[in-house]
Amino acid sequence: MALRMWASSTANALKLSSSASKSHLLPAFSISRCFSSVLEGLKYANSHEWVKHEGSVATIGISDHAQDHLGEVVFVELPEEKSSVSKEKNFGAVESVKATSEIISPISGEVIEVNTKLADSPGLINSSPYEEGWMIKVKPSNPAEMESLMGPKEYTKFCEDEDAAH
Question: b/e map of 127-156 (b: 16 or more CB within 10 Å)?
């Protein structure tokens, strides 16, 4: 699986694509999109953050697609516990070898936990964006905001369209 993901990412980066092989010995292939992971059970914002809502807690991080475009993450700035985050407002930043990007909150609420592991190991965002690389846990102040976020199928299409436009 890892080799397939590497090959797919490399082919995409090199913009390799073929619908018909020039040699009868080589199979035809077509690679039309990056094979970033999009998980069921999560909601996604168009700014590429994800939310996992369980009971009264919502866990927030950046998507596999976002970390792939950022490259190697070297620093993460996150809010303090007990601070508030607001839907569509900046709550922190991710610095990579390529750029620094703001992290936009997909929902509003009170920060009840911050992933302190990211201070010493920001690369967890790259290696495990949905498990160990989560950023904050929030007590949502308006759970209905989740309804405006995309499901996995919509987010996959959004990423494909966004990549095609670039």
Answer: eebbeebbbbbbebeeeebeeebbebeebb
Closest C-alpha among 25, 23, 48, 24 to residue 37? 48
pLDDT digits (tens, 9 = 90+) for 52-87: 999 999 999 999 999 999 999 999 999 999 999 999
Mean pLDDT in residue range 138-142: 97
Q: Exposed, middle or buried by CB within 10 Å (0-12, 13-18, 19+), for 116?
A: exposed
Asked if 112 contacts 80 with a C-beta cutoff of 8 angstroms, the reply is no
Buried-state track 64-83, b at ≥16 Cβ within 10 A, e below 16: bbbbbbbeebeebebbeeee
Q: Which two tokens mark 138?
A: 């929030």
Higher pLDDT, residue 106 or 16: 106
Decide: 72 and 96 in contact? Cβ < 8 Å.
yes
Under the banding of pLDDT at 50, 70 and 90, the label for residue 17 is: very low
